[in-house]
Amino acid sequence: MACTSGRPTLGQDADRALFAESAGTCLLCNTTLFPSDPKRKRSIPIAERAHIVAHSDDGPRADSGISQPDRDSPSNIVLLCPNCHTKVDKAPESYPADYLTKAKEARKQAVSRIGGTPSFSSRMEARKAARRILLRNRILFETKGPDPITGSTGSREKAAVWSNCILNEIVPNSRLLVALIEVNEDLATAEEMETAELLRQHTDALESKHKGEPLLGPAPRFPARAEKIFTEEGE
């Protein structure tokens, strides 16, 4: 694999693996990296391969202690949409290497838990994958989350564990669920697509809160309809 002028060029196998572990969506905003073009009747690839640690010593998140081969390895590359790529490189202090590395690994693990890239041929298959994500988040909330009545975690130590769980497991799982819905738009109802957007807004606010970032207005609540994604009437 070579990298010219800071632009990563991966081998075919490495590139396929990168798309598989990303679920075909932007790591940060979950936008599909293959939006459809009705006029041309085909999808348009918009994925940009971004370095976590910069290719050069003066680029975003540069680290001269990392070798050039390691900087250009697939483990140092994430798939982003054009907007997010611009954002992370224009504001590297808001998107440090450690954050992007953890997000990449969390997405990879979340995808592996549902058996690979979430593109399905039926609502039943999609429901099975969605159920696994929802069940995992529910168990995490019940075992590590705050008291459902008081909202208290009981101690600072438990609060720190919960925040870590939110950022490293629940947020990536929720983003994967949003990606699953959007990648399978042809199987989803209009209401389910709306639910995906509400879940995205909830997840963004949840992440910002636990990263200590200011919220612009009230935090959106988890949309209860997400629990019924891809279910059939009467389930």
Explain this structure to me?
The protein is globular, with a radius of gyration of 19 Å. The protein contains seven helices and six strands. The model is unreliable at 1-5 (pLDDT under 50). A hairpin with a 2-residue loop joins strand 1 and strand 2 (7-9). By secondary structure, the chain is mostly helical. Helices cover 48% and strands 8% of the residues. The strands form three sheets. It has a two-stranded antiparallel sheet with strand order 1-2. Strands 3-4 form a two-stranded antiparallel sheet.
Query: How do the helices and strands follow one another from N- to C-terminus?
Result: EEHEEEHEHHHHH
Taken as a percent bin, the fraction of beta residues is 5-15%
The biggest beta sheet, please? 2 strands, antiparallel
Q: Roughly how many Å is the radius of gyration? A: 19 Å
Count of discrete alpha- or pi-helical segments spanning 4 or more residues: 7
Query: What general form does the structure show?
Result: globular
Helix content: 40-55%
End-to-end separation? 49 Å
The number of distinct β-strands equals: 6
